[in-house]
Write a structure and sequence with these properties.
By secondary structure, the protein is of the alpha/beta class. 34% of the residues lie in helices and 14% in strands. The chain is globular.
Length: 150
């Protein structure tokens, strides 16, 4: 079994153990590995425009707001925007700040026929540390994965 198959099998087992409706749950490092090993894979960043601009971006990610900024209103056009940009056959991974919005997006994708939908655990910034700060405990940036300042 190759690295891609092993990584996806682990993510799928996590999803089963957590009783998730989508294909799997990946750590940030695993998601990066999948992007390197699966040429058609897509990373969909569902954070807000403000987060992309002020916190940072993942190069090459498809950016679709789950919640609109400003106002923090749900993006009523999320699914239509997503379907225009991501093929239903693609392996798609969702990323947000901490993993909550991306979990919701992965659930919606799976319910909409995307059978290869994965959530990226920990998100871009990870959980808060004891002082209430992010980027110290888990997350894409803390793992040292590629990102650029917005």
């Amino acid at each position: 079994m190759g690295k891609l198959s092993e990584t996806l099998a682990l993510a799928q087992e996590r999803a089963r153990s957590l009783n998730l409706a989508y294909a799997g749950a990946l750590t940030p490092r695993e998601a990066w590995d999948v992007l390197q090993l699966a040429p058609g894979a897509k990373l969909v960043d569902v954070r807000t425009r403000a987060e992309w601009d002020w916190v940072g971006r993942v190069p090459g990610a498809v950016e679709i707001e789950w919640m609109l900024y400003p106002g923090n209103e749900p993006n009523a056009h999320f699914l239509a925007q997503f379907k225009r940009q991501v093929d239903p056959e693609a392996l798609v991974m969702f990323l947000c700040r901490s993993g909550a919005r991306s979990n919701a997006a992965a659930n919606l994708a799976a319910a909409s026929g995307y059978t290869n939908a994965y959530n990226i655990l920990e998100g871009f910034e990870g959980d808060k540390d004891a002082s209430g700060h992010r980027n110290k405990v888990g997350g894409w940036r803390h793992a040292g994965l590629p990102w650029i300042q917005g």
